[in-house]
């Protein structure tokens, strides 16, 4: 971009984890609005740095880099018999693996170059349900947030599951929402977060919330769409407004109290049978659905060949609908 013949650049942003640092650097070089502090950007890219900078009161998995030549035994002795291996720089769901044996460890290392001592991190395994908070952070404070839960998490989806999630009803989960917002405030403050749209993941353990990780970018999959449908908040608009130096106030002006809660499913090909979009539509009611059943359909992350959005005024009914759709997608019948 620095060598491109562009007359005027008003702002720069990244909607993907891998572009966050590059966007920060471009703001530095072109004197553009938004976060231009590359050190801060690293706090949200390197997951070891991120966890090491959190205050002691924030519960988190133990995390360490995996230098070239590190043995399974060394990591198991340090982190426990079950641990997680993933890219240090995030965006790693497709290269994230739960490791329980030397064989699984060797397999988990194969997607990496093996040429860097800071390319990979290993973390103690947290066996608990995962929730996430999408939000807007500006002027050192939380301006807006929405909490969601996974029916099938990205880690499970990498291993063949159907990735799916839904917005949680704040009135039904008021204590958990308050705890997540408190955790977000602690994490973003300690990491010196810039004005940003953020995505923070956490685990709901018996001891309380355990911090997973946090990114200063738009959430992935269909989270921006279901947030907008539920709350009227367009996180793409917020991200653009922040990148132009306009602030988030205008873009947050259309937020509303939810009348229906929305969730999404990234549909995949089932094993052993063929499904069409008509099959889904005969069995379920969708707000939106696109499904390509052709043999040469491109397959995206998590085995995705289609996607769907569903909604309900009752979160519990929404969760049951998503559960039924996921089962139908997996086995081809209700």
Number of strands: 12
How many helices? 11
Largest sheet: 8 strands, antiparallel
- Spatial separation of the terminal alpha carbons: 50 Å
Mean pLDDT across every amino acid position: 92
What is the ordering of alpha helices and beta strands? HHHEHEEHEEEHEHEEHHEHEEH
Reading side by side through the largest sheet, how are the strands ordered? Answer: 9-8-5-6-7-10-12-11
Radius of gyration: 20 Å
Q: Based on CA inertia axes, which overall geometry fits? A: globular
Structural class: alpha+beta
Uncertain runs: none
Percent of sequence in beta strands: 15-25%
Measured as a percent range, the helix fraction is 25-40%
Walk me through the structure:
The protein is an alpha+beta fold and 334 residues long. It has helices at residues 20-30, 38-43, 47-52, 72-79, 102-109, 154-158, 174-190, 223-231, 235-243, 277-283, 315-331, and strands spanning 63-65, 83-87, 97-99, 120-124, 130-138, 141-152, 164-167, 196-205, 208-215, 261-268, 288-291, 304-312. An eight-stranded antiparallel sheet has the order 9-8-5-6-7-10-12-11. The chain has a four-stranded antiparallel sheet with strand order 1-4-2-3. Strand 5 and strand 6 form a beta hairpin. It is globular.
Q: In summary, what is this structure?
A:
The chain contains 11 helices and 12 strands.
Which secondary structure elements does this structure contain, and how are they paired or packed?
Blueprint: H1 20-30, H2 38-43, H3 47-52, E1 63-65, H4 72-79, E2 83-87, E3 97-99, H5 102-109, E4 120-124, E5 130-138, E6 141-152, H6 154-158, E7 164-167, H7 174-190, E8 196-205, E9 208-215, H8 223-231, H9 235-243, E10 261-268, H10 277-283, E11 288-291, E12 304-312, H11 315-331
Antiparallel strand pairs: 1-4, 2-3, 2-4, 5-6, 5-8, 6-7, 7-10, 8-9, 10-12, 11-12
């Amino acid at each position: 971009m620095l060598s491109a013949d562009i007359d005027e650049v008003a702002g720069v942003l990244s909607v993907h984890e891998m572009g966050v640092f590059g966007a920060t650097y471009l703001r530095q070089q072109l004197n553009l609005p938004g976060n231009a502090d590359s050190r801060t950007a690293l706090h949200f890219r390197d997951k070891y740095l991120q966890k090491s900078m959190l205050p002691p009161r924030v519960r988190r998995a133990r995390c360490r880099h995996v230098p070239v030549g590190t043995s399974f035994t060394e990591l198991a002795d340090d982190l426990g018999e079950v641990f997680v291996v993933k890219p240090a720089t995030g965006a790693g769901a497709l290269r994230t693996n739960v490791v329980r044996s030397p064989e699984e460890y060797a397999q988990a290392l194969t997607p990496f170059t093996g040429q860097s001592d800071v390319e990979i991190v290993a973390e103690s395994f947290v066996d608990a349900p995962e929730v996430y908070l999408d939000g807007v952070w500006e002027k050192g404070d939380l301006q807006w947030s929405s909490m969601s839960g996974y029916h099938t998490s990205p880690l499970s989806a990498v291993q063949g599951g159907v990735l799916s999630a839904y917005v949680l009803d704040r009135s039904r989960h008021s204590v958990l929402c308050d705890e997540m917002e408190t955790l977000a405030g602690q994490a973003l403050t300690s990491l010196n977060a810039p004005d940003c749209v953020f995505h923070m993941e956490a685990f709901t353990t018996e001891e309380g919330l355990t911090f997973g990780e946090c990114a200063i970018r738009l959430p992935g999959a269909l989270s921006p769409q279901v947030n907008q449908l539920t709350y009227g908040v367009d996180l793409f608009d917020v991200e653009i407004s922040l990148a132009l130096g306009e602030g988030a106030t205008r873009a947050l002006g259309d937020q509303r109290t939810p009348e229906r809660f929305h969730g999404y499913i990234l549909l995949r090909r089932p094993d052993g049978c063929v499904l069409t979009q008509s099959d889904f539509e005969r069995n379920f009611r969708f707000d939106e659905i696109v499904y390509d059943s052709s043999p040469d359909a491109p397959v995206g992350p998590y085995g995705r060949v289609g996607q769907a959005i569903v909604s309900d005024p009752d979160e519990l009914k929404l969760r049951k609908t998503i559960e039924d759709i996921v089962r139908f997608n997996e086995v081809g019948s209700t």
